[in-house]
């Protein structure tokens, strides 16, 4: 079975075709903004136009817009191609990109940009299973968490602020999908925002 994997929850726009646990083709671009304009063309550039037997999409947390763009694209392709779609945590995908190092260290903390001066943080065990739920913390709070290995696009900043630990800089990369545990996938993908929405309903008189 060939799977199309999509993630655009960070500054990276990443897609890959996976078959029998092997990457057949991929595209990975760090674009910052413009995921809505770039994601579908990236998929179209893949072998066979990205056609697959199943879809998997990163559901965040990350950029609110990037998360919604990826899920909307995956749902649309799932409907158009009549194939199933499942979701996974973007932080789990980041952990999967450093699977060997995390296994050797018997665990790690994934630290990613969370917006509004906060970081998304989540600890993973050596087998890449989550140890706790994702949290959105200010850097000063985040560095109180105990860890020897830190992975993510804020790993270097975390280690510098804490003054200890080993950092592996990483962005979500669809090529790491084969390293995800089966339990990381879920049906009916919906956004994982990781923190409360910025907009709040106005109080009524």
Q: Can I get a quick summary?
A:
With 205 residues, this protein is an alpha/beta fold. It has 6 helices and 11 strands.
Q: How would you describe what is shown here?
A:
The protein starts with a strand and ends in an 18-residue tail after the last strand. The mean pLDDT is 94. A hairpin with a 2-residue loop joins strand 2 and strand 3 (22-30). It is 27% helix and 29% strand. Helix 1 (35-45) runs parallel beside helix 2 (64-81). The protein is built from 6 helices and 11 strands. It has helices at residues 35-45, 64-81, 90-96, 99-105, 139-142, 155-162; strands at 2-7, 12-19, 22-30, 54-58, 85-88, 108-115, 118-124, 135-137, 149-152, 166-169, 186-187. With 205 residues, the protein is of the alpha/beta class. The strands form 2 sheets. Strands 3-2-1-4-5-11 form a 6-stranded mixed β-sheet. The relative contact order is 0.19.
Secondary-structure element order, N to C: EEEHEHEHHEEEHEHEE
Structural class by SSE content = alpha/beta
Helix content: 25-40%
Mean pLDDT: 94
Q: Output the radius of gyration.
A: 17 Å
Summarize the helices and strands and which ones pair or pack.
Blueprint: E1 2-7, E2 12-19, E3 22-30, H1 35-45, E4 54-58, H2 64-81, E5 85-88, H3 90-96, H4 99-105, E6 108-115, E7 118-124, E8 135-137, H5 139-142, E9 149-152, H6 155-162, E10 166-169, E11 186-187
Parallel strand pairs: 1-4, 4-5, 6-9, 9-10
Antiparallel strand pairs: 1-2, 2-3, 5-11, 6-7, 7-8
């Amino acid at each position: 079975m060939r799977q199309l994997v999509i993630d655009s929850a960070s500054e990276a726009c990443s897609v890959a075709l996976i078959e029998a646990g092997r990457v057949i083709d991929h595209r990975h671009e760090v674009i910052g903004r413009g995921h809505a304009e770039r994601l579908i063309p990236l998929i179209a550039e893949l072998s066979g136009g990205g056609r697959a037997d199943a879809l998997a999409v990163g559901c965040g947390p990350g950029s609110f817009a990037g998360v919604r763009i990826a899920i909307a694209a995956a749902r649309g392709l799932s409907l158009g191609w009549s194939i199933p779609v499942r979701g996974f945590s973007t932080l789990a995908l980041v952990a999967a990109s450093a699977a060997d190092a995390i296994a050797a260290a018997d665990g790690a903390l994934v630290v990613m940009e969370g917006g509004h001066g906060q970081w998304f943080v989540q600890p993973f065990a050596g087998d890449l299973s989550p140890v706790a739920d994702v949290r959105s913390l200010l850097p000063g709070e985040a560095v109180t968490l105990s860890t020897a290995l830190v992975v993510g696009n804020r790993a270097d900043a975390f280690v510098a602020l804490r003054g200890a630990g080993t950092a592996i800089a990483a962005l979500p990369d669809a090529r790491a999908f084969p390293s995800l545990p089966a339990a990381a996938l879920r049906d009916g993908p919906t956004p994982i925002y990781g923190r409360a929405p910025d907009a709040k309903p106005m109080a009524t008189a």
